Amino acid sequence: MIMDKEAPIGVFDSGVGGLTVAREIMKNLPMEKIIYFGDTARVPYGSKSKDTVLRYSRQIIRFLRTQGVKAIVVACNTASALALDVIEQEIDIPIIGVVKAGARVAATTTTNRKVGVIATESTIQSKMYQDYISTIDPQITVFGKGCPLLVPLVEEGWTEDDVTKKVVERYLQELKEEEIDTLILGCTHYPLLSKIVGEVMGSGVKLVNPAYETAVELEALLAQRGMKSEVCASGEFPYRFFVSDAANKFTEFAQSILPVEMPKAHQINIEEY
Amino acid sequence: MIMDKEAPIGVFDSGVGGLTVAREIMKNLPMEKIIYFGDTARVPYGSKSKDTVLRYSRQIIRFLRTQGVKAIVVACNTASALALDVIEQEIDIPIIGVVKAGARVAATTTTNRKVGVIATESTIQSKMYQDYISTIDPQITVFGKGCPLLVPLVEEGWTEDDVTKKVVERYLQELKEEEIDTLILGCTHYPLLSKIVGEVMGSGVKLVNPAYETAVELEALLAQRGMKSEVCASGEFPYRFFVSDAANKFTEFAQSILPVEMPKAHQINIEEY
Fold first, then answer.
1. Which residues pair with A6 in a beta bridge?
2. Closest Cα in chain A, distance from residue B150 (Å)
3. Which of B119, B69, B129, B121 has its CA nearest to residue B99?
4. Residue A232 known to be catalytic
5. For the segment A79-119, what is each residue's pLDDT rounded down to a tens digit?
6. Cβ(A83)–Cβ(B79) under 8 Å?
7. What domains are there in chain A, each with its CATH number?
8. Strand A95-97 to strand B95-97: parallel, antiparallel, or no bridges (unpaired)?
9. Distance CA B93, CA B244 (A)
10. Which one is catalytic: A187, A193, A247, A254?
11. What is the predicted ipTM?
């Protein structure tokens, strides 16, 4: 199959969190166009079952294909953990997710072979980070901790707050006792809490941001397949944003964390795909 | 239209929260059968737009009609606030919601005519509690406060916890300064925090639980229309539970707060309705 090198990258998440991944792609692959979809009508995925997350992911991929994307980035940890293995068997364009990228970097970063992961309950229960890390180095022990309050705290804007610090301290206590030296921020919202997490864990623990690592992996994959964009898009804005609900609220939040001026997001009915 | 008095009551919510309403109906109207639907695949509604909440509510009502319900209780504050006024024009069976019931009792409870409401952001922004209370007594001033962290805190099980108390104190500070004497717990999860909320507000402030008031209103409505059940259901369990995702998790949570042994919830695909 011959794919247009100038076609956009499809990026999707359950909501706004995946914008931290889109941001890393914008910074590190500035020639690439992006079609972003945030499933704001059905957010969050973290508490939903595998079957439901798989059905939602398939609908989103059908939508992204209508936009002519050349590759897909699953910017949602839950969907990466629960749906990626199945979906990559079903489509004929490259697809990568944040979980594998984060896992690989964590495995090469740790020196004492004790890695922690913080994420939503579903991601932790799927043991997907553990599984990937074990295939790279079976000697590494992975300690997972579900942190369901952190996404609401970020969305409330309490990213530098005493209450948030108390919640983070409580969640991270067990991981500190295990003496991990590497901690994966296994949910796309968590990089926005990296200051507090860093303070709580101390300077001896390295934080892994899967959003950044995913952009690095995407670049390598496109290069390997001869699919990197070679020209800057001219005469058109290279990034388009779609959501399943509340486009204005999404646009505001996106504007606050993206490095570019952005157009208004379009709302679509994802259940039709 | 002649309706079977022994037909069940349909009760729906975005998830598990509406079980606090089902519980009050079980306690106060023990002859009535209940069909409960929790939209666990699309929870929460609190951050979603009016159009989306309306579309979801219509799908759920179409499902409940297939179960032959004689009346519908909207046990979700967000759906009551955003969708009830439209939906009650569209169907030919009685439908009531938690917002009106809570508003009416608050209006007759306050003596200084200063009422507070805590709820999700959508419910507060809809100003529906304010509007209903104003139609009863325009002299009452209503102070609303969105509390997005309280649902996740309840679902984390931190209902009697220092962190939760700190969050509640911060959210309620403005309402205390306004010297309200009555506070509506405007989200179905909040009755599970009534101990902490009561401590923070002090004994001079009366708490209104719309779940209880809704059961009282339902009983009056059924009596007025000659639709009260007159026989105990025999040979069959009177309560059935349906969800759009994660039936096991729902069943566990439901068992922990309901006064009866309950059967396993059934999962359906609500998008098909």
1. none
2. 10
3. B129
4. no
5. 998 999 999 999 999 999 999 999 999 999 999 999 999 99
6. no
7. 9-97+212-272 (3.40.50.1860), 100-210 (3.40.50.1860)
8. unpaired
9. 24
10. A187
11. 0.79
